Amino acid sequence: MSRILDVYFHEIFAGKLTQDLSGNLSFQYDEGYTSLKVAPAISVSMPLRQEAFEGSSVKAFFSGLLPDDIARHRLALYLGLSEKNPFALLEVIGGECAGALSFYPERQTPPKVKSTDIEILDDQKLQKILDLLKRRPLMAGTDGLRLSLAGAQDKLAVGLVDGQIALVRGATPTTYYSHWQTGDSQAA
Q1: Is the pTM of the predicted complex or chain greater than 0.70?
Q2: CA 174/CA 82 separation, integer angstroms
Q3: Phi then psi dihedrals of residue 146, to 5 deg
């Protein structure tokens, strides 16, 4: 049986990432998404179309959303997953990815942004979290934090709220983002 993740671009359902029994990945845009006049492609390697994308380009793109090398190895080890299975890693930590993509189990909608999902970090709390990152890559396993940041270094996405660094959970955006569907821009 295939495994499926719903892919969202910001808060808009964009399509489905599927892993078949052999571990092969495919991505197909949702028909409703492709019918939006201003919907961007999630990647230049996967322009808007109705046919599914398959093969190495799909795996390469979705793997590229994950941490690289040592950080990926440590994360996979911590989660008890294969570092060579981007689908499994995105399934666990894909709530927020580089490029405004998020991944949720099929038919599970992203959580709504809540003010309680923001924790302002003073210097002491920030230092404690930075120390914890050495043992828990990307804060994996922390309730509400589902982060996937590409690159080789240990990272943690945070928000800036009234000039203060904040740890954010759920659907709360971590960085500056633009709502392309309305043209409004906001900062977290």
Answers
A1: no
A2: 27
A3: -125, 85
Helix (H, G, I), strand (E, B) or coil at 152: coil
Element (DSSP H or E) covering residue 69: helix 69-79
Instruction: Please state the separation of Cα 38 from the chain's center in Å.
Output: 22
Say how far apart CA 88 and CA 132 lie, in whole Å. Answer: 23
The whole-angstrom separation of Cα 183 and Cα 178 is 7
Contact 99, 65 (CB under 8 A): yes
Kind of pairing between the strands at 3-9 and 147-148: unpaired
Q: Residues 117, 120, 125, CA angle at the centre, nearest 5°?
A: 115
Predicted confidence band at 163 (pLDDT cuts at 50, 70, 90)? confident
Strand intervals (E) in 43-182: 53-54, 96-97, 101-105, 118-120, 147-148, 159-161, 164-168, 177-179
Indicate the pLDDT class of residue 74, thresholds 50, 70 and 90. confident
Other beta carbons within 10 angstroms of residue 53's beta carbon come to 20
